[in-house]
């Protein structure tokens, strides 16, 4: 989670971070997680029986997606606000 915060990047985990949202000591990271969890958190499913691994995606709220942009300069993402 801290690595994702530092890079403003997606993170892969099945934890719902309910406890983290209340108990995380670093206020900046807690605020970032509260603001961007739905956009950056990628959940997954792993079936031990078959060995199947699937990402659970597609639940990003429409209001969090960019409108009217055909491309994004990666430098903009790197410097994007975390708050």
What's a quick, concise take on this entry?
The chain has four helices and three strands. The chain is an alpha+beta fold.
Defining traits:
83 residues; 17% strand
Chart the SSEs and their pairings.
Elements: H1 2-7, E1 11-12, H2 18-23, H3 27-40, E2 41-47, E3 52-56, H4 74-78
Parallel strand pairs: 1-2
Antiparallel strand pairs: 2-3
How would you explain this protein's 3D organization?
With 83 residues, the chain is of the alpha+beta class. The chain contains 4 helices and 3 strands. The radius of gyration is 15 Å and the shape is globular.
Name the shape in a single word. globular
The helix count comes to 4
- Find the structural class using helix and strand composition: alpha+beta
Per DSSP, what share of the residues sits in E-state strands of 2 or more residues? 15-25%
Largest sheet: 3 strands, mixed
Q: Summarize the helix and strand pattern as letters.
A: HEHHEEH
Distance between the termini: 15 Å
Could you give the order of strands across the largest sheet? Answer: 1-2-3
Number of beta-strand segments: 3
Helix content: 25-40%
Low-confidence stretches are: none
Rg over C-alpha atoms, rounded to the nearest angstrom: 15 Å
Mean pLDDT: 80
